[in-house]
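Narrative of accomplishments. A recurring question from our advisory board has been how the design workflow behaves on a single, concrete structure rather than in aggregate. To address it, we present the structure tokens for one chain from the evaluation set, followed by the sequence designed for it. No filtering or post-editing was applied between the two.
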């Protein structure tokens, strides 16, 4: 374990979990956006609705990860 920790770095598990959390959030946001005829492809930094949907779905993500366990 120590050799993997040295090779990958102390925070690699957090990065791994963060990427999965983002993937789950984006996937979950598709259905919510569709309710208002929006898609992820329409995202831009000026669209507050899409941003808020992504933020909310990210806040709702709950999964067993490398560094975080589901409560």
């Amino acid at each position: 374990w120590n050799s993997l920790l040295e090779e990958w770095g102390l925070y690699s598990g957090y990065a791994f979990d963060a990427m999965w959390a983002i993937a789950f959030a984006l996937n979950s946001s598709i259905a919510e956006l569709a309710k208002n005829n929006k898609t992820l492809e329409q995202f831009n930094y000026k669209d507050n609705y899409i941003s808020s949907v992504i933020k909310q779905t990210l806040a709702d993500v709950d999964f067993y990860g490398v560094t975080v366990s589901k409560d």
